[in-house]
Amino acid sequence: MDNKFDVKKLIQISLLIAIEVILTRFCSIQTPIVRIGFGFLPIAIIAMMYGPLSAGIAYTIGDLLGVALFPSGAFFPGFTLTAFLTGIVYGVFLYNKPKTWPRIIGAVLTVCLVLNLGLDTYWLSIMMGKGYLALLPTRIMKAALMIPVQSLIIGIIWKKVVIKFVKVSHA
After folding, report:
1. Nearest-angstrom CA–CA distance, 89 and 51
2. Nearest CA to 37 among 124, 149, 148, 138?
3. Measuring CA to CA, how many Å separate 77 from each of 12, 43, 60, 161, 162?
4. Where are the domains of the chain?
5. Which contiguous run of DSSP H or E holds residue 162?
6. Transmembrane ranges (predicted)?
7. pTM of the entire structure?
8. Using an 8 Å Cβ cutoff, are 107 and 44 in contact?
9. For the domain 3-170, what is the CATH code?
């Protein structure tokens, strides 16, 4: 690996982290129980281009930067862990593999159901002192909405935008 590629990779990941912070903090709907936003997209792109570890670390950095620069509540490290695991999951499903609809949907289902619905609901129950089951109905509705939205956005952006960008940047 030459240094030019490393710098290029670092710049691309840094820009995508900045986009993640902006999309999460400024372009999302936030309630105490649910956040609906598009911060997942830059992380999915990092995962597809650079792998699970790069995406996990990038999402961790983005989460920490977002909390430090634009706090919207108390910091809770569980959500940072979920962010890291989200990048890992996207990378495991999508890095160096064909970006097929079943793979994209599998990644989104795992993130939305296991991490966002399961783990994040657990973190919220700890933070808010509410029962896990009491938080589930609203969070199930969010997951039901976000699964098709995330799947479509990741698939379309990959096929229509990112592939063209990658071809241009390698030319």
Report:
1. 10
2. 149
3. 26, 19, 10, 33, 31
4. 3-170
5. none
6. 12-28, 40-62, 74-95, 107-128, 140-158
7. 0.88
8. yes
9. 1.10.1760.20
